[in-house]
Amino acid sequence: MKQNLLRSYKRSFNGFAASLTAQEHEKLAGHEKVLSIFPNAIFHTHTTRSWDFMGFPMNIPRNLAVESDIIIGVIDSGIWPESESFNDRGLSPPPLRWKGACKGGENFTCNNKLIGARFYTTYSARDDTGHGSHTASTAAGRPIDASFYGIAGGVARGGVPSARIAIYKACHDGHCETANILSAFDDAIYDGVDIISASIGQKFASDLASDGVAIGGFHASVSGILVVQSAGNEARKLSTVSIAPWIFSVAASNTDRGIITKVSLEDGTTFNGKSIHPFNLHGISFPIVYGDDSRCHKEAAKACDYGCLEPSLVKGKIVMCNNYSGIEEVSKAGAVGAILQSSYPTPVSFVVPTAASSFNESNFNTIQSYFSSTKSPKATILPSELITNLDAPRVAGFSSRGPNIIIPDILKPDITAPGVEILAAYSPLASPSGEDDPYDSRSVDFNVMSGTSVACPHVTAAAAYIKSFHTDWSASAIKSALMTTAWRLDPTKDKLAEFSYGAGHIDPRRAVDPGLVYETSTADYVTLVCNLGYARLLSINGSCATGERSTAPKDMNYPSMTVRVNGSSFSENFVRTVTNVGAENSKYEVKTTSSSDYTITVNPKILTFKAFGEKKSFEVIINGKIKEYMISAYIEWNDGVHTVRSPVVVYSDSINQPSH
């Protein structure tokens, strides 16, 4: 079988990846020393304004000496090392504890900013899709004046510009094999990174025993490394792909800066659509075509399906497409521009290869009515411009929602962060309108992207910022600090509430001084894994201990409290322990939400601390009746200085019905 060996994991955990026949699989699975065998699943790669929007300006107080010792490991599509975002001006050599290496391939050079590089796919750690460069610079890029063809201009910077970056290229063309992901975790843990940022995930949540990020993240957690992962961009499937409690799962939301593209019809009506493009039609109106002048039947032509548009018939015209993906066909056919129907209920601006704008169904139908009722319909498309989003932050339409279908009593996602229309570094080898767009030959150093992949490095940077002030804090303490100090979003504006945004929107500045933290130990994770029947995950500890204490997942010492119930009436309790990381002598009083649908009781109602590091336990009891499919509530501990808030969520199975 040696000739079929693909990868060997020896540095941080034991295992290997290999091509096996069915007989070899069966033989290995029966071996007493083999804990688990699972498929080599494919994962997918999932800022001038965002940091200021969060109240996190460039001149915020920093502990620069410690920040520059923090190493962020980025598992992604590689990096463009020559980008100005990764210059090392003014930075000292890497920390002495760093055990990594610069093995980025031919003509790939590291520096005192980009201190390490490894690759497990293609022949270089160089980024040829732009994704890895964008995420790495969002987390720790140096401040650079930048824009996308004059759009979204300003200073693009990461949250911790002095932190070091180590890149682990496990992805290519948007695909990341489990074997490569585990190699990246194995190396990153050994190399000595402090935080791992993984803007990758599968299309669907998978069993913990076959989830490469969950398994690699577990071993990272045992080594004291916080792993931050994007929640996924599959909102319509109602299942976040990041489900393990030892991983920090991040949803995406907008900021107060938006990008729009206006379309003006010749009758004088103007619509604000969503896209990002710099093309100027100089106010000239062009004929609109929709479903005609094509090579296909009418419905395929309306969708602008592959091969449907006849270049000679759409030249000098604006094409309407009732499918957003039709933009590639419009670009290929050489039309002047496109009016598109967005696939998201709340459209997002993506970079497009030609003058184009996308609309929700209502506005698209209005434009369609104009087209149908006008003898010679015409329109013009304006260059993109900035607007102020007065309702920010709102969770993006694409952001994957909960509940957690693998561990139903652990709330996921954990938190939300800016992930909509963010400017950051890019690879000049990649098309700015998408890694798979062969008809956009532009080359840029900075690009605007959206996705939970973009939100993830914001949380990574926030965690690194906290660590720079609290070097002795555990990964779970940092996670707790960010969750309990998050802005609470309005559940009346999002019917899935915490299943959309977790504990709320990150507030890095407040999280440095949270007052109390919920700490979750390795033993807690081991107990959970054992009780759920995932002992084979524990390759470092062997099988679970006999007589392992039984703890329900809802009673894990997690910063949020969640339980799934059968039926509508319920009575549930949660037990939690908090650690004082604030003043030595402090008294916290509890406050809870109230509603005719439920009552919350907390015992005791007052927690008194006499020492730093002192722990206190309490119980939360919630009784009530679910009218629709969930109860969205919270408890809040307050000492007059700190506010420590935890979501309390009770939900029924009906939340998984398609109508929700």
Automatic annotation (TrEMBL):
**What is any one GO biological process for this UniProt entry?**
proteolysis
Q: Which residues form a coiled coil?
A: none
Show where the Subtilisin-like protease fibronectin type-III domain sits: 555-650
Q: Where is the Inhibitor I9 domain?
A: 3-46
Q: Does the keyword Signal apply?
A: yes
A GO term, aspect molecular function: serine-type endopeptidase activity
Has the keyword Protein biosynthesis been applied to this entry?
no
Q: Do you know which Pfam families this protein is assigned to?
A: fn3_6, Inhibitor_I9, Peptidase_S8
Instruction: Domain (Peptidase S8/S53): give its ranges.
Output: 68-504
Q: Cite the InterPro entries for this sequence.
A: Peptidase_S8/S53_dom, Peptidase_S8/S53_dom_sf, Peptidase_S8_Ser-AS, Peptidase_S8_subtilisin-rel, Peptidases_S8_3, S8pro/Inhibitor_I9, S8pro/Inhibitor_I9_sf, SBT
Q: Gene3D superfamilies of this UniProt entry?
A: 2.60.40.2310, 3.50.30.30, Peptidase S8 propeptide/proteinase inhibitor I9, Peptidase S8/S53 domain
> Any idea which residues are catalytic in this one?
76 (charge relay system), 131 (charge relay system), 453 (charge relay system)
Q: Which keywords appear in this protein's UniProt record, sorted alphabetically?
A: Hydrolase, Protease, Serine protease, Signal
Would you name any one GO CC term?
extracellular region
Q: Which family does it belong to?
A: Belongs to the peptidase S8 family.
PANTHER family per UniProt: PROPROTEIN CONVERTASE SUBTILISIN/KEXIN
The name this protein goes by in its record: Subtilisin-like protease fibronectin type-III domain-containing protein
